[in-house]
What does this fold into?
Amino acid sequence: MNFVLDTHSHTVASGHAYSTAKEMIDQAAVLGLELLCITDHAPMMPGSTHPFYFSNLNTIPRKVSGVEVLKGAEANILNYAGEIDLEPELLKRLDIVIASFHPPCYEAGTKEENTQAMINTMKNPYVHIIGHPDDSRYPIDYDMLVKAAKDNGVLLEVNNSSLKPGHFRQGASENIRTMITYCKKYEVPIVVGSDAHFYTQVGEADLAKVILQEMNMPEELIANTSVTRFKELLNRKFQK
Ligand SMILES: [Zn+2]
Ligand SMILES: [Zn+2]
It folds into this structure.
């Protein structure tokens, strides 16, 4: 299983990450990755950046150090209606948008409410990926989540950082396994993101790969193995 891209990374702009965009991209080049997504936290995350940061991302060239760069954001899901903290006018200018639950920005509801929040978020035409839907602090109905991902053409993330020992997200290993069971059943693709907050973490996917291999996840349902395939999956809902 050879991964050629990483869909989730943060720079100093996120406020709690510690490398520059150049350092992140250079590390992707060192690793031989073909594509890196830079997805800094959207403004509601304490310490993160102003919307102007996202509106000026086209300053970064499409290719740097031989690596294709997709410029985006990790938006915060704010409520059960699935509202997120970047406006459509800005979202439509981004190459890639992840939307996730984060403790300071979203108050956990019941399993039904959390599931509905994620499904409503998927209906946003500019959201490509649901980030780390793997945290027991926000219980989710995975059967419904995976079906909705299929219906809305959204990728579900297997977040490598969530799987690290002692990570603050809870129950990730078990929750990811449950999600993958339904992804296999309904033939819904996933994407692995490192969620790197320092350049040494770019491209990390080892813990996710162990689970994907253990569960015999078909390679055609893993979006990291081909840039062309990844872009096809992104474009399912999003005709720019
Ligand atoms: Zn996140
Ligand atoms: Zn992140």
Residues 172-186 form the longest helix (15 residues).
